Structure prediction request, 216 residues.
Amino acid sequence: MPAASTLLSSAFFNRDPRRVARSLLGKVLIRRTPHGILAGRIVETEAYLGAGDAAAHSASGKTARNSVLFGPPGFAYVYFIYGNYYCLNVSCLPDGVPGGVLFRALEPLMGVREMAAGRGLSVPGPEYLKKASWLRKISAGPGLLCEAFSITRARDNGKSFVSSRSDLQIADDGHRVRRVAIGPRIGITKSAEQPLRYFIANSPFVSVPLRPLVKA
DNA sequence: TACATGATGCCCT
DNA sequence: GGGCATCATGTAG
Prediction:
């Protein structure tokens, strides 16, 4: 990662989740561990709106589970799903207004071996280490990226993304995204028609490479 | 390669 | 007790 990379601020997340989801593409998710740094480029996100979005966890009001979505912007909302997996979100909009963005897929950048271990994958020979077909196994999905980063609700729910002291951060390393694709969100039944999934077109690291586009 | 299905546990009604 | 912002595996083609 380039030396000149800057931490995203609270103001970045204090916006409509659709704009945050779009702007997060190309940014770098970072986990600082005692053993080193894990980093992955964000290649796929989904926006969950506070108002009028039946698919959002905040749709039926504030509960113990979803309270982070109603708090200040730039904090981690982690939930447990389908008995096996965690999903990572960042809260958006001002304190008191619900909204968030789900991290759906990352391109592994740093700490590939550690992330593979977190996923329970055996590391192949060096000739495969940089192949997208293998790297895809690490974090091409919301449940997978949480395994790779060892993200759990107990450890990370409510954690700040915007504190310089946090072990969970998001940085801008100057990378420019060439082309963004937009489509319907994955795995939901309510409000499934809304085009709120954002991903980097042609990236081999997204969770579902091909899916009908709504707009370019 | 594409699709269907089962595993699994927590939160909310 | 139902439903769930998922994933790995098995079967068919």
Summary: Helices of chain A lie at 10-13, 17-24, 112-119, 126-129, 132-139, 142-148, 153-156. Residues 6-178 of chain A form a domain with the 3-methyladenine DNA Glycosylase; Chain A fold (CATH 3.10.300.10). Chain A has one domain: 6-178.
